[in-house]
Design brief:
single chain; 91 residues; two-stranded antiparallel sheet; binds FE2/S2 (inorganic) cluster
């Protein structure tokens, strides 16, 4: 009698990548479905527990870390002009 090895599932769970840009936003990269739309949904809430609607067609989001964006919680590029220096880095 021989035992068969169990087959690994060919389906991998989707991976959401978070990338901390030096002195810039936190970039969220969402996995895409075959048609190019994000295959997972993400909910962003602020410190008051206010939920923000995310654009469903985007697979990359940038979240503000400098506090100067006029479109918070999203980055609008203001970190470049306010000389934001992040105190911490992702390693
Ligand atoms: S990190 Fe880009 S505007 Fe704040």
């Amino acid at each position: 009698m021989t035992l068969q090895k169990s087959k690994k599932s060919a389906i991998e769970p989707p991976i959401v990548r978070l990338r901390c840009r030096e002195d810039g936003p936190l970039v969220v990269e969402l996995p895409q479905a075959i048609d190019g739309t994000p295959s997972v949904s993400v909910q962003v809430t602020d410190h008051h527990r206010v939920a923000f609607t995310l654009p469903t067609h985007k697979s990359v989001l940038a979240l503000c870390r400098c506090g100067k964006s006029a479109n918070r919680p999203f980055c609008d590029g203001s970190h470049k002009t306010c000389e934001f220096r992040a105190g911490e880095t992702a390693r």
